[in-house]
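I'm stuck. Please check this protein.
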Amino acid sequence: MRIFVARLAGTPVFDPAGDQIGRVRDVVVALRPNDPPRVHGLVVEVQPRRRVFLPITRVVNIEADAVIFTGAINLRRFEKHTTESLAIGELLDLTVDLGGRQVTVLDLAMEQNRAGDWLITKVAVLRGTPARGLRRRRGETVVVDWPEVSGFGQVQADQGAANLLAAFEETRPADLANALRHLPDKRRAEVAAALEDERLADVLEELPERDQIGILSRLDAERAADVLAAMDPDDAADLLQDLPPAQAEALLARMEPREAAPVRRLLTYAENTAGGMMTSTPIVLPPHATIAEALAEIRRQDITPAVAAQVYVARPPTETPTGRYLGVAHFQRLLREPPSSLVGGAIDGSIDPIRPHLPLPAVTSYLATYNLVAAPVVDELGRLVGAVTVDDVLDHLLPPDWREHDEREPDGPAGEVDGGG
């Protein structure tokens, strides 16, 4: 059976009882001078976002939509040995030699020999000019035997990342961010350079602050400003607060004034206040908008569930800071109303807005008291300036390093997941 490793990325991993314990994130191989690489095992991500090692000897079946293992998995954080390589994270997109021609590695195939060992036996390569983005391959794709290519052990100045990103194309930004954290600095920079601005912005929002700063500092100033503009204003403001003031101001100056304005407003509030946590782009409609229009806004794919939970009603202009704030309409109420009705008639008059300078503990109590997932933030002039969502609050309640919790060992004596036998 021949398995192409890039297609394993994201595949669910199950024990024989049918319980899913995680997903495949990479394949660990050992390069050998004169022989095909030996597959040591799989990097599996288990909750909560911890990467562990699953020896290939524990894998009993690999299917298109499942990897099944037996035995036990050690839950200690995966650490790659110096003699090992990550097939997806490090070997894809390499430029190697095939019969005197430079080709790009698209994928690697592994097969099990008669002795039961898994080896990398085939290499899918692109003969032609390598592309720098997804879906833009030019040239001929061929699959050759491993001994026909050379150059896998060489360090390359610009490896590119199109094929690595293709393997993670269907993953959520948080999962791609976690994969990015575990790559070498050079490879991380190559992946960031290959990502489109919007996708990189989504990934940056899911990274710890030090990784955000590290990636942003490797981008040229113009692109860094474009990526900041593609981020949610509250996430962009949080990132800029961690930069030296001169650098932050220089990036703001490169942004379009219309894109920089909401970020500058958010920077005027203290970090642990409603204004410092809020998103400045909630769903806002005038009172004469219809229920059908409100539901269409909620259904937008780029809207998070917390933001989509309610629609804020205000006099024009409907961009923050809005005209006079009128109230909030919950999505459950919208679903019960005729589509032709007006949102002004679906306002919940029992929910009072909060002020931008309300501190974090008070915001938390407010959401808990009224069982809300979001709260309107209104300034002293009666204008809606944003909304605080429950995920904004959680980001500030959790420890600063919560995105890096997989660096710590599991609590208590339970250090393995038993896959049965």
Observations:
- Residues 234 and 279 are 5 Å apart (CA to CA).
